Amino acid sequence: MYLQENFVAYKTILIKEILRFSRIWLQTIIPPAITMGLYFIIFGQLVGSQLSDIDGYTYMDYIVPGLIIMSIISNSYSNVVSSFYGTKFHHHIEELLVSPIANLTIIAGYVSGGVARGLIVGIIVTLVSLFFTQISIHSYIITLLVALLTAILFSLAGLINAIFANSFDDISIVPTFILTPLTYLGGVFYSIEMLPEFWQNVSLVNPVLYVVNAFRMGMLGVSDASLSVAILIIISFIILLTSICLWLLRKGVGIKK
Amino acid sequence: MKALEIKNLRKIYKNGFEALKGINLQIEEGDFFALLGPNGAGKSTIIGIICSLINKSSGQVSILGHDLERTPHEAKKHLGVVPQEFNFNVFEPVEEILVNQAGYYGVSRSEAFKRAEIHLKQLDLWDKRHDMARDLSGGMKRRLMIARALMHNPKILILDEPTAGVDIEIRRSMWAFLQQINEQGTTIILTTHYLEEAEQLCKDIAIIDQGVIIKNCAMGELLSELDSECLELNLKTAINSPPSLGDYPVRLKNQTTLEVEISKGESLNTLFELLTFNKINVTSMRNKSNRLEQLFLNLVSSSERNTGA
After folding, report:
1. Mutate which of A6, A8, A87 to disrupt the B interface (most B C-beta within 10 Å)?
2. Which domains does chain B have, with CATH numbers?
3. What's the rounded Cα separation, in Å, for the pair B66 and B68?
4. How close does chain A come to B192, measured CA to CA in Å?
5. What's the whole-number mean pLDDT along residues A80-104?
């Protein structure tokens, strides 16, 4: 009974989240498609046509996986951070706190909402990329697995950001000053082999590098990092962030007086 | 079994303010219970702790025998809450708010739609079911919160100022509705600043002041403590000075309104004989203040005197 009730509660949060971002699709679904389309035109076609191949792929082909995973990262993160912070700001988090939902169900519901938006935007960006290049997927299983794990990871990160946030400024600080630089420096637009050795080593500390390269391995079969190490790192971070979320909700940090 | 049992509940906020100083309270199943107190007395803190919105510092809260800390799932599923502030998503349609609420309690979506129809019709909101919640009037929003709280058929319903800011017609219809669900077996715990509301609806009462319960008894028992009542008499013809009415203390409020204090158990016949003797025609009469209001003010001011506040 307990599991069944929590499963219904999980579905409720997930449906609510999907309806939320679908209702405002002009703000949530379309902008990433336009932004990534511009990236394909400017970096892929205009600038990329002047550059030599990387790992045997044209520059356009090389950046497609990076741009798809970048859109998954930013959309899964921003979906959860804005939605969960909104529930705090408008006090309807109280609906959840009063109810008998388990904390893990709350986390699973919001994270699944973030995953749904991240993957939908990822699919749309993939469709946009087809206007500029032909994609042949190296491994569907790796590509889908990495996309899913990445969406889960960054949804969890967004949830932690929302739990701590006390203002709308707080939910834009992390994406602006941490997430975007790490993503841009995580090999979306280049291979770290193009960097001097020192900066190659520095880049290896950036966890987003492993995410981008694992996804590129799935799509193109080339990567700057070992796939198994990358997946291990992503799963480890998922376990770590889930534990942090559970602890924060149990303590009521940022949501209870 | 007690619907709600609170043992030695304390709350000290981070700034050092002690909002609750060891509250003990028992509420029977099926009761219509009033929790009253002046602003800042600790009512909202108690309700916040019962609803898991505020962390307690120490003490124990049990709902229908289930400890809120040890078995939160069992304890919480019996509780419905109508908070003081609107706390639904104003950007969601009315029906969706109810269906989601039911879902949080494990009620399937198809069943939730059926229940939403029943409660929206009961509370005259059925026509508004597709409207965004932000477009509802204040009274409609209050009724929406009551409908939402009932979606999982709670055995205990907590109402924190449910009729604040609604007009008298809606307030009366809400009273009738609450009485009806109480008669059907739902335990209701009510906080309100409208003491007339508490007097009309509630069987038992607790008054809290400065984090301490200063009175906890049956409503009738409390009302029987009132020593005297002040009656306001409306006169047919104007008079210029207060008449002599024997031992009754009397005050002329204005030329056509007379205030007379009646001791507990004193007959009104003598008063009217004296009024007739003085050729004063009374057209109507009412209690100057609500009886509970008078007692409430006496208790709270006496509590403040005792604590030197």
Report:
1. A8
2. 2-223 (3.40.50.300), 228-291 (3.30.70.1560)
3. 6
4. 20
5. 94
Any domain includes A54: yes
**Residue carrying structure tokens 């939902």:** A101
Question: How far B94 CA lies from chain A's nearest CA (Å)?
Answer: 13
Q: Which of residues 97-136 of A touch B (CB under 8 A)?
A: 97-102
- Dump pLDDT digits (tens) for B176-207: 999 999 999 999 999 988 777 888 889 999 99
Supply the pLDDT for residue A6: 94
Nearest by CB: A12 against B51, B87, B104: B104
CA B104 to chain A, closest CA, distance in angstroms equals: 4
Residues in chain A: 257
Query: Is residue A256 assigned to a domain?
Result: no
Window A:23-42, CB contacts with B under 8 Å: 23
Which residue in A1, A2, A256 is closest to B54 by CB distance? A256
Are the Cβ atoms of A97 and B53 closer than 8 angstroms? yes
Whether B68 shows a pLDDT value over 90: the answer reads: yes
Of A219, A185, A207, A6, which is closest to residue A101 (Cα–Cα)?
A6
Q: Categorize the per-residue pLDDT at B224 as very low, low, confident or very high, splitting at 50, 70 and 90.
A: confident
Say how far apart CA B259 and CA B7 lie, in whole Å.
45
Q: Does A87 touch chain B (CB under 8 A)?
A: yes
Residue A257, domain member (yes or no): no
- pLDDT tens digits along A210-228: 999 999 999 999 999 999 9
At residue B87, φ and ψ (nearest 5 deg) are: -135, 30
Among the residue ranges A12-16, B66-70, B197-201, the one predicted with the least confidence is B197-201
A143 touches chain B (CB under 8 A): no
Q: Do B53 and A256 touch (CB under 8 A)?
A: yes
Distance from CA of A26 to the nearest CA of B (A): 16
Q: Report if residue A63 sits inside a domain.
A: yes
Q: How many CB atoms lie within 10 A of CB B100?
A: 25
CB-based contact (8 Å) between A83 and chain B?
Answer: no
**Confidence class for position B153, pLDDT limits 50, 70, 90:** very high
Which amino acid belongs to residue B155?
A: K
HEC profile of B244-279: CCCCCCEEEEECCEEEEEEECCCCHHHHHHHHHHCC
User: Where does residue A196 rank: exposed (0-12), middle (13-18), buried (19+ CB within 10 A)?
Assistant: exposed
Q: What is the mean pLDDT of chain A?
A: 93
CB contact under 8 A, B105 and A252: no
Question: Quick one: pLDDT at residue B230?
Answer: 81
Pick from A52-56, B117-121, B253-257, B300-304 the range whose average pLDDT is largest: B117-121
What percent of chain B has pLDDT above 90?
54
Please indicate whether, in this complex, the C-beta atoms of A256 and B55 are within 8 angstroms of each other. yes
- How many domains does chain A divide into? 1
Q: Do A8 and B106 touch (CB under 8 A)?
A: yes
A165 by DSSP, 3-state: which? coil
Task: Give the domain extent around A115.
Answer: 2-251
